[in-house]
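Continuing the batch. This is chain 6 of the set; chains 1 through 5 are on the previous pages. Same settings as before, nothing changed between runs. Recording input and output for traceability.
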Amino acid sequence: MPSHFAKRKKSKSPEAKIAVLLKDEPYYMSDFNASIKNCAPLTRFAYLFDLRQYMEYCLINHSEYGGIDLAHLPLSAFTSAAAQELTDWLDALSVANRVSRRRQQASSAYRNRKIAALRQFYRYLIREHLCDFDPTPLISRGQIGQTAPFVLSEKEIRKLLDGIQRNDCYLLKDPSGRWYIEPISESVRIRRERQISRNIAIISMLLYCGLTVSEAAALNLDSIDFLRSTIRCSSADGTLREIPCPLAASSALKAYLSCKDLPEELLARQTTPSQAEFLLFCRKFMLDSNAAAKACAFFGRTDEQFLLDIHECTALLRLQGRSSFSPEQSERALFLAENGHRISIRMIQHMVLEYGRTYLPELSRTRNISPEVLRNTYMFFLTASADTEIAAAQTGVAASRIKCLKKMCGQS
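Output for chain 6:
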């Protein structure tokens, strides 16, 4: 089995990463971390990591700190630093280009993040009466220009959806770090077959309705009104809004929610085992490529018609959309995960990313296809045809952002 399908190694939490950083850093870094405990763990880790880079720069470029290790770097490395010295460090920063693998000058956004870490640290020093002056206001911040959002063309949208429907290949990664595509195995095809209608419906919510990934994950069964072709969702600020559900999204939802009855002649043939036992077995092993062989061993039947019935029933059950995930009666979530409960935001993000790499490999070499890209695509086409106020109401964003988007995309 390819390593791509192996169980992923669980990454360290931000708190664990912070603990590793603080092990060999000066005492005042632990105090600083405690002073910003109200910040998110990822933010605190970013601040500590940026400050560590500056301390390492001081050890290399200042002779007075020669022979001193990082854990014993005196606080004077910050308290005696002038704005020009901090600027020299920022100018020396470089990052690796993800495409060419070469070092290049850091972007303005990267530089500004380092300045934010320094500013936060100097505020701590002044608050604790460890320093009398904050040099960060004298450091020039980089200008971040606005660029048009990355969106998909209609041809790329169709290519993505057609690939998901075909379910014919999978993206793999070799030891050298290069991605390649190869046909999936029968067991993987069967496992993914149940997810097709659900995943197309989720992508349709992002692409044709402009929902955010959190809004799509939070949808319930009663959020959809097929008679009025609308969707009720909650925005990030908690306000409810009702948005149109176009035909493409409505059709994808109906395909996911439809539950066709099994053929009567299929069930009528089942006497030994009974219909209830037959259905229970098929539902339990519908994702197993060896379901027919297991049925032979379990029920003691080897006739060809029974094996064909097992194969047909498991295939039909996989195509029953939401009901194939065996939800509990109390579960009101629209989109379900493998365990029959509400799908998570992270699972949607990972699903969109993998589909983008698989079916749009040319684009994915330079940009990740994320749920935000799908939403940006919706907003791009919407702002081209709708009034600013209408577009703002449908997307749940401020009208000023819609005007900015129109300007960046060259729309009047």
